[in-house]
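Q: Given only this backbone (153 positions), what sequence would you predict?
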């Protein structure tokens, strides 16, 4: 009886993981290729044109920031309804999202933190953990990922 050699099975498994990851990333790239395009059309564009410069000057999560968001509410309601990478899109919030939605949201949050002069991604993650009731384990995964990518500022 010949001895089992795991190499063939390991290589087959590795190829399967590669194929599945390609399917995942293809789906993710399809989604991000149209990221936030609803902001380019009404009913969103006019309000985003008016209020985005003001939001960019405010400290994320501050009272003034939330007041400005209130003025943007009609555009945001439409935006959230049409973009599943936002927790507000889902009745269950974060728990209703797919992993692709979470990845797009994570990248969206980093890009948003870069708009602010005082933007700090790790600080934003902490604010969003409270804002969206993100479970501690997921928040830690976000922080670990930010650190690995060098996005901690």
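A: Predicted residues:
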């Amino acid at each position: 009886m010949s001895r089992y050699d795991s190499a063939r099975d390991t290589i087959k498994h590795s190829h399967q993981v590669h194929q599945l990851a390609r399917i995942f990333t293809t789906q993710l790239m399809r989604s991000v290729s149209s990221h936030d395009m609803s902001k380019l059309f009404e009913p969103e564009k006019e309000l985003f044109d008016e209020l985005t410069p003001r939001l960019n000057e405010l400290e994320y999560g501050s009272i003034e920031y939330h007041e400005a968001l209130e003025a943007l509410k009609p555009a945001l309601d439409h935006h959230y309804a049409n973009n599943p990478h936002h927790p507000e899109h889902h009745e269950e919030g974060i728990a209703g999202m797919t992993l692709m939605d979470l990845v797009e949201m994570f990248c969206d949050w980093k890009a948003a933190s870069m708009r602010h002069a005082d933007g700090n991604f790790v600080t934003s993650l902490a604010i969003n953990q409270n804002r969206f009731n993100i479970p501690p384990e997921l928040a830690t995964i976000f922080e670990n990922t930010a650190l690995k990518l060098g996005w901690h500022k």
